[in-house]
Write a structure and sequence with these properties.
The chain is an all-alpha fold. α3 runs antiparallel to α4, α3 runs parallel beside α13 and α10 packs antiparallel against α11. About 35% of the residues are buried. Helix content is about 75%, strand content about 0%. It has a domain of about 90 residues. The protein is built from 14 helices and no strands. The chain is globular and about 55 Å long.
């Protein structure tokens, strides 16, 4: 035997054994990385919401298994949060609004409960995401919102940090729509605003100005009597729309549904929804624009219910 060969073989066997033991984690991390890179290119431009719904439902189950192995891997946490958020915000909300339009209120209640459970799970993973940056996160939450703002600025300071900030901020606001936790979900709103504002500071254009859009939606959805500012919200959303060159039709629908209604501007409501229905096919937003058109049609039917005066 050549000198050193025996030790080389032993080392090689040890490396192989260790790699085999950790192979699932390696594969799962690689999958998370691929999803992060390719999902926007494939899913956003896909033409059939039903096929994507099935794919997302399957991926959620797979990702839950993955969390048992790589629950401390940031790209995997971001992926599962976005999957839960997207499934609830688009597919379940669309089903619920269709059931409401048909007067099937038992189905509305059933879907609303599902959305609550899904959004609560997204918020749970968002907390895990923030704890990865600093295990003192939970303690900071007990120190007041100024301390949370300082903690956020200290732990998120690069342009690429806008991703984690945006997805976490989104996740903390989703339970306000439907949550099994009830009024407890409102306590996360200040945290969400801190995260989203920091995201805007770092990279306002991340994911087509998503953080700016969410903040604008929040302002328009909150009554003035409890701190809402629809004029500010409209300005934020118009800025987000400009960044997407008015191709993200979901933003336009939100302007009509939230800001125009809050300001009781019927002309803006009609004009914006008409723009959505007459818009072309923008490939980079194709899938989400289908949902926007569905909602635009429903909102136009509800116009007289949403405005007090002609």
């Amino acid at each position: 035997m050549v000198p050193g060969t025996k030790s080389t073989i032993i080392i090689s066997l040890l490396v192989t054994a260790l790699t085999a033991c950790n192979l699932p984690a390696f594969q799962l991390k690689a999958t998370a990385d691929v999803q992060k890179t390719l999902n926007p290119q494939v899913i956003d431009s896909y033409w059939d919401p039903e096929i994507v719904e099935y794919a997302i439902a399957q991926s959620l189950v797979a990702n839950e298994f993955g969390m048992k192995v790589i629950g401390d891997y940031e790209p995997a946490l971001i992926s599962i949060i976005y999957a839960y958020a997207g499934y609830g915000q688009y597919w379940l909300l669309d089903k619920m609004e269709r059931a409401e339009e048909d007067g099937n209120f038992d189905e509305v209640e059933r879907i609303n409960r599902r959305m609550g459970a899904i959004f609560d799970r997204a918020a749970m993973y968002a907390r895990a995401l923030l704890r990865l940056r600093d295990d003192g996160f939970d303690h900071t939450l007990t120190q007041g919102w100024d301390a949370v703002k300082a903690w956020t600025d200290e732990n998120f300071f690069r342009k690429e940090d806008a991703e984690a900030l945006t997805v976490a901020g989104l996740a903390f606001l989703l339970p306000l729509q439907a949550s099994a936790e009830g009024s407890a979900a409102f306590t996360d709103r200040p945290l969400a605003e801190i995260l989203l504002n920091r995201s805007v500071e770092l990279d306002v254009e991340y994911k087509n100005a998503q953080a700016l859009m969410i903040l604008g939606n929040l302002e328009c959805s909150t009554p003035k009597g409890v701190g809402g500012n629809p004029e500010k919200g409209l300005a934020q959303m118009e800025r987000a729309v400009a960044i997407t060159k008015r191709k993200s039709l979901g933003m336009l629908v939100t302007i009509a549904d939230r800001c125009a209604v809050a300001l009781q501007d019927r002309k803006m409501f009609r004009r914006t929804l008409t723009e959505v229905l007459e818009a072309g096919d923008y490939q980079e937003f194709r899938l989400w624009n289908k949902f926007a058109r569905y909602k635009a049609e429903r909102l136009l039917k509800q116009e007289n219910e949403l405005f007090f005066e002609e």
